Amino acid sequence: MSVAALLEARADDGRPGLRRAGGDGAWTWREVVAESAARAAWTTSLGDTAAGGRDRPVHVGVLLDNVPEFVFLLGGAALSGSVLVALNPTRSAAEPAGDAERADCDLVLTGPGHADLGLFDGYYREDAPDRLRDGMFWSGDLAYADADGYIFFAGRSADRLRVDGENFGAAQVERALAELPGVRQLAVYGVPDAASGDQVMLALAADGFDPAAFAAYLRGRADLSPKWPPRYVRVMRDLPATASNKILKRRLVGDGWQTDDPVWWRPGRDVAYRRMTAEDAAGLRAEFEKRGRLHLLERSG
């Protein structure tokens, strides 16, 4: 079923359809459809020459990490006839992922005939000519599709992690951890691994941290891939954020595990956490230096 068909089928559905940020209630399906339809009308007007628009196919660039706005924009694009395609940048054709562990597809937006976008010249103070390629807009978002053709947001391209050879998006792990009790905010991001690739790090805004309860929660999540449990857990009073409450992951990534905040970690493969000590941190730095990757730590901390 397409996104447009799904929305049309739920137009009169009064049941909850989209949870609000922070757990403050939910939008009903009827409200989701109404919000999407309003954006579809705006999108269509862009191509209406009678309304001063352009007589060409309409294309909409959607920043999918702007929850929940991206859901309404996605719905509006679908209802107005725009096309969303997930492409693997190393191949020329779409490659749907069979499960959530595949997140190596970049989300691009185009329209009928792959026509020129024509709606805007670019981003303010951003020189990114690679955003427009072959008449398609590369959004910088990661996505995967299931066997039924549903497209799922998997994070920003900058949030791509590679752990033990497996690629996945930070947003996938964040969704799996979203129901952690006693947590006000959380963010998942990659930090360097001493050998190669990344390790998963989690920052929590919480008043305390129970490592045993956290490990039990992870073991009880059937939707958590074996590579997803965080190697490091940083506990903070509040996560750094912009004025619009968008978490500043780049600051968290810059700090890594070299911070004055308490950090728990699991040294081995077992899902068991202990408090990181000064001796632990020194041992990690020595391992990075031994493998010629100390420069990755010196960029942070």
Automatic annotation (TrEMBL):
Domain AMP-binding enzyme C-terminal span(s) in chain numbering: 172-246
Statement: the UniProt record of this protein carries the keyword DNA damage: no
Domain of life: Bacteria
Gene3D superfamilies from the UniProt entry: 3.30.300.30, N-terminal domain of ligase-like
A single GO BP: long-chain fatty acid import into cell
Signal peptide: none
InterPro entries the record matches: AMP-bd_C, AMP-bd_C_sf, ANL_N_sf
Membrane-crossing segments per the record: none
GO CC terms of this entry: plasma membrane
Protein name stated in the entry: Acyl-CoA synthetase (AMP-forming)/AMP-acid ligase II
Organism of derivation: Actinomadura livida
Lineage summary: Bacteria, Bacillati, Actinomycetota, Actinomycetes, Streptosporangiales
